[in-house]
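Now for today's protein:

——
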Amino acid sequence: MQEHKFDKAKPHFQKVLAGPIKELSDRANVHLSTCNQHLERTSATQFKTAEEHFDYTVSLMNVGDYVSAREHLDKLLKQNPKAD
């Protein structure tokens, strides 16, 4: 979760939920909810232009989410290989 890779963290929390320890299940449920919220926000992000996508990437860098920003920059380069 600290790396903002919520899609990878989600199955691990689901495994903990199935476990026998109630305290861990409660915490895993909270973290799973957080993962779901972030994944919904990420999937809802649709960009009309490459400029909008780039602006979003810059905003991620401004808040310190460099991993996600890098992933978005990679997507932008794949979509527009000749872009600056």
About this structure: The radius of gyration is 16 Å. The mean pLDDT is 86. The chain has four helices and no strands. The CA atoms of residues 24 and 75 lie 36 Å apart.
